[in-house]
Specification:
Two copies of one chain form a homodimer. In chain A, α4 crosses α5. Chain A has two domains: 181 residues, Medium-chain alcohol dehydrogenases, catalytic domain (Quinone Oxidoreductase, Chain A, domain 1); 149 residues, NAD(P)-binding Rossmann-like Domain (Rossmann fold, 3-Layer(aba) Sandwich), CATH 3.40.50. Chain A has eleven helices and 15 strands. With 338 residues, the first copy, chain A, is of the alpha/beta class. At the A-B interface, α4, β11, β12, α9 and β13 of A face α4, β11, β12, α9 and β13 of B. β13 of chain A pairs antiparallel with β13 of chain B.
Chain lengths: 338, 338
């Protein structure tokens, strides 16, 4: 029915995650109706509306799978651009996983998560990758509880969902973005503070040092106007952002930098017993938790719809930075609504 | 009675933390007998054996002081080399804090912690700075519980205590040090695994990737033979150490690097939802917790004693890397025992 368009899709098609095999299909924020259920499928029935995110399989046997943190399974299968994992026996084993820019999709039930009633399935699509990417670190680090003051760097596809989700979790959100262009949107999304950055973050942050418990950084370069494109220079001023952290705070990056980021000045990490790190997607259990939160608090990503037939135009517009803040492709043949 | 000799002492005397005022006295692992108690002192009596670490005062009024994480008080006073904080009113306010390379010491009761009965006061001294510096991140990050597999980088003053404390907390400890020189000591201290490093950490760690939940890094340059000296080049291969982390793992630095550390390759932090960061000393409550653990599990730092009168020779020997693994100065006039 629907598939969100995430930065990793053009990235994968451009070879960011390795060679692209002929006939590769991207798309990993997939929402649709269950039309067939295999004999070993669990918890799903024909007619259910489900979503699949960036992970579509794992080994089921390792400690991480058993602990329901399947995103760390060493045999995990990304929904696009990686070979199908060991759970796919027989003819399918070793074939490349295919995504949701398609009419139909088939995969293991464990990674098909029901969309709760009351949550618009089209708006839910971007939650399955972009949403969980920011929800997981918000959740793991206690946004709204022990991390009351949350910063979100970059107001794009991921950042706008991070603001909404953090607010729904009870956090006080500070949005951080270049210039004033996105201030109005950030406040509308639920931020209560806004820090406009310039080419001199030290100066921009002078009045805000030691104010945030947790920062989710969705960009990996200084100018978030093109935050959604991930092959970028190693120029994010990490040290300036870390100076915003309160003691025990954490600066978490969710946007890949293909090159090493700038040298880290570690005394400020030591003085505040603070951390910097990364986070990658989240488990099926966490996706369920996020969807329930979204349904309860009416968290609806801001989307623009494209007909699935217009995928090529959508990719062009995406690369031009036009999403405000997420594109969703609509498969009208299967009941998707424009 | 006793005072440990920590790397920050020669550091402070050399101006590492700012200008050194004439007559400055270092020493911040102080253990002695209470001989006078002021009218506002709490919980102490003449005759008690107490210790004072790297922090000797704080404001008592900020959120961190109220939450018993006084080490984050913005007005915290280091026991050496910083001006006395706002709690010292009157004539003393603004005067430089003086340390424990002395016959007597005077300070607020809040930062004088009782040494439990059954713990040798001389061996306890190094716990008050070096010990709490490694205990705090071990404790905060759940060593022995959610962080079962702990790595300790650098077997020196801090590292040897980290191995003993982590083992006492129930962790499985991997010691990481240059060459094989310290292997026997590391195993004797309680490590069950040992990784010898060379000039090629990528190769050294090839068989150990994704094996550790928490790494306490006590060095800030590649060669831990001189780990205790902190004014050093920015050459620690952080990325190699981070590759040892399991998912949700953390690489915590407790040794200051005066220059920015090498550029960080963040995709491996993202893929494992891992962190790197720092940690600085710990609160009086944490010191109490550590001392109780040490008394219960007979954690005794390996010390060599010097008479307090021989402090200048001790500093020379310290800089030459001779401690194995901590020097303790003995004030025989006041009941310290050689």
């Amino acid at each position: 029915m629907y598939c969100g368009l995430c930065a990793s899709d053009p990235g994968a098609l451009a070879g960011q995650f390795g060679d692209v095999s002929p006939g590769a299909v991207a798309g990993h924020e997939i929402v649709g109706e269950v039309i067939r259920v295999g004999p070993k499928a669990e918890g799903l029935a024909v007619g259910d509306i489900v979503g699949i995110g960036a992970q579509c399989d794992s080994c089921r046997e390792c400690e991480w799978c058993k602990d329901h943190e399947e995103q760390f399974c060493p045999e995990m299968t990304f929904s696009i651009s990686t070979p199908l994992g060991p759970y796919r026996r027989g003819a399918a084993a070793g074939r490349q996983a295919q995504g949701g820019f398609a009419k139909f999709w088939r995969g293991p039930s464990r990674f098909a998560i029901k969309v709760p009633e009351g949550l618009d399935p089209a708006a839910a699509a971007p939650l399955f990758c972009g949403g969980i990417t920011v929800f997981s670190p918000l959740n793991y680090n206690g946004a709204g509880t022990r991390a009351k003051r949350v910063g979100v760097v970059g107001i794009g596809g991921l950042g706008h969902m991070a603001i909404m989700l953090a607010k729904a979790m009870g956090a006080e959100v500070t949005a951080i973005s270049r210039g004033e262009a996105k201030k109005a949107d950030a406040l509308k999304l639920g931020a209560t503070k806004y820090i406009a950055t310039s080419s001199d973050p030290e100066k921009d942050f002078a009045d805000h040092k030691r104010t945030l418990d947790l920062i989710i950084c969705t960009i990996s370069k200084p100018d978030d106007a093109t935050a959604s494109l991930t092959l970028d220079p190693p120029s994010l001023d990490v040290n300036a952002y870390v100076s915003l952290l309160r003691p025990r705070g954490k600066f978490t990056m969710v946007g890949f930098a293909s090159q090493p980021i700038m040298p880290v000045f570690q005394p400020q990490l030591i003085h505040n017993s603070a951390d910097m790190g990364g986070s990658q997607i989240g488990s099926p259990d966490e996706i369920r938790q996020m969807l329930d939160l979204a349904a309860k608090h009416n968290v609806l990503p801001w989307i623009q719809k494209y007909n699935m037939d217009d995928i090529n135009q959508a990719l062009v517009d995406f690369k031009a930075g036009k999403p405000a803040y997420r594109f969703v492709l609509v498969n009208t043949d299967n009941g998707g609504k424009m």
